[in-house]
């Protein structure tokens, strides 16, 4: 009876084993990566680690020290300081704990820093200079170059109200980019002041919480100055702008007088303040001081410049704001000229730590988009994400001699050379293919004949690939046994070292 239940639909006999395999296959989970996330492999990971190490060197040269915060914070610690959203959970991944407290994956590295400073305020030296590298998470619609998880690298100074702290951030950022291999003319640090922008908003009647939405539209229009020019910004400040494809972007709806006021500030010479008053004049004075400080330190406008069009989206900025922009052109996926644009930014946030305390605590900081910067450096040839050479592979020709092979591997490792013993169940040919996939520089072979002679065969895989392009005759290939050397077992380590270091066996 059981046999009959496993007959195929055509009446053919079936042992039942195939049906079970089909059932398992049908019910198997589908391997799939969530949208907006990426897997990272060896080449990318090692390149990132090398880049982060160089950034750390510069930050520590300036006296900054590392601190690390958890990936999860109480949602109210992030609060309204999310990217222009009214609802506290908007834009973040949130969940409730068993005590019904809302928790969120951190959106950036600055809000957690504010919390840790407030929590340990009396124990920390002020000013408190720290840096942090880590993953942040955005619950936003993913798209090209827009991910839900990405790495940032921040540096912050808490407890210094002077514009000198802001100037130092800009200088450190310029030094960091050059330490990573960028040259003068390939980048610029652009500096503005939110007080100037806030003063302009007051002057055109957009102060107050009730105008928050329109202010955001105006700021987004200002941010497009480099892309669309003054006339394009005028359209976005007014009724709106239609692009070449016919898509229409609704504008801020300002009148002509207000538009003139905004555009005049965007196109004014740095520091110009003939009719500025109140908070706008204060912002311009701070920019003038920053300009004097960076000039005194030898940083010209080719490295750091005052730019009235710089806008940072987060609402917690209260003073100077800055962006690191890459100026060189590359080619996008469609083969069209393109720029990487901004790869980092920051500014002053004097109200962020004060949310947890009864006093205002000044702070300023800078955040680098690690993945974006790495993509730019890769495009310039300053960094490579290609896999590094893998370990030397000791192959297994006689499974009764695993102890001998383990001894060989240890000898190679003891010499400081990466090595592994093949632990799979395949034969000699498959083991060589395995070593090739591992990008191994060479493999060690010792069968019965080699053991009797006290030798090993060392196959230089990199040289073998090179020679395979030069030898077209199969007979010559077999006769020459390209890139394979026989050496005494006692000389194995030195022969391997020469191959790994770029010589020959």
TrEMBL record:
One of its GO terms (molecular function) is histidine-tRNA ligase activity. The keyword Protein biosynthesis applies. It holds the Pfam family HGTP_anticodon. It is found in: Cytoplasm. Keywords: Aminoacyl-tRNA synthetase, ATP-binding, Cytoplasm, Ligase, Nucleotide-binding, Protein biosynthesis. Homodimer. This is Histidine--tRNA ligase. It comes from Kaistia soli DSM 19436. The gene is hisS.
